[in-house]
Amino acid sequence: MLPVAPSSRPAPGDDPLAPLLDLPGVRDAVDRARTACEELRWHEAFRRRWREVRAEADVRAARASAAVDGARVPLEVLRGVATGGDRVAPAAGAAGPAGVRADDAEPRTAGPVDLRVATGALRATTLAATWRPDLGARSEPALPPLGQLLARLHAAAGARWLPDADLGRVRTEDAPPRDLTGLGAAPGGSEAAARLALLTRTVGTTRAPALVVAAVVHGELLAVRPFAAANGTVARAAARLLLCARGLDPTGAVVPEAGWAAAPVPYLATAARFATGTPEGVAAWVGACADAVVAGAAEARRVADAVLAGRLG
Q: Comparing 309 with 104, which gets the higher pLDDT?
């Protein structure tokens, strides 16, 4: 069930997420995130070298996303994967900023579980980048319906460390998720599928600010955990894409995952509050998402500074 208090549920035909803007602190959170992204947009690096900034930001986003789930990999290692040093590809048939393709051969060395999880996060992040509009472009790629988008992100994130039968498929009724256990019991497979369908319809019709949409998608995916595992990776990749595709972050370089990785316990605690569906819990989650965008914009600025100075590894 999407987090709108019963007393404030919109009438049919109304924007389903509009009531969230009236929750305490939500409009301030939207403004805070917008200001951070607007200030980042004017960095000199985005005049001619935005593709380099995005590519490095993507690697950092993937590394931080994996770290939230406890899979910690040195940045240099994952950067090497992104540039083809380990021949690990991002997603089936997709070429991302690093130019690696999923039809490449298996990695020469499989590596530990942490590396496989982080590489999956990199695949999902790189796949999401294929739907990200170019900076300053007059047109932009059309996003597939959210359910299809999430399935493809999950197939990318879980490739080579989850069973093929689980990739991109909603859990069966008798198969609880194997991740994010600290968030309490997840709904069964049929309820998860129904809530995912409702979320897809909601995203397809809402005109709420990008921060609110991304926060709801992110929080609902953590609460529902529709897939066998890698739900957090998918939730964070989808939320980051929505921030860009819906216009909040035109640079495509904000790394909100950096804020989550720095405080994974508060991240999960606030996500658990969102899952309750209470106005207070939802407002706290949207505020936390805004804080992550602000932190992610600061990380993007550091990346942009490094690109201009030629200091990237």
A: 309
